[in-house]
Specification:
four-stranded mixed β-sheet; mainly beta; 2,3-Dihydroxybiphenyl 1,2-Dioxygenase, domain 1; two-stranded antiparallel ribbon; 6 strands
Length: 83
Amino acid sequence: MRVVQLTPPGSACSIAIGVGFSDPQAAPVQNLRLVVDDVEATREALLENGVAVSDVSDMGGGVRYAFFSDPDGNSWALQQISR
């Protein structure tokens, strides 16, 4: 898998492009991302509401992730980028 994520300076929005991380013809959708201020707090809120969420992964450079799937099988990543 090769992925490049582009985030304009000061923006809360990113565009991810790459090979091997999504098949637009197939459902469910993979690798949807939600950028959050506090991945731990967001993870706890999801857990309290019955959502199975992975442990938080620290990717280095201030980037942290947690992963979950919605009832339709779409996979989501909670992404925190510390500046």
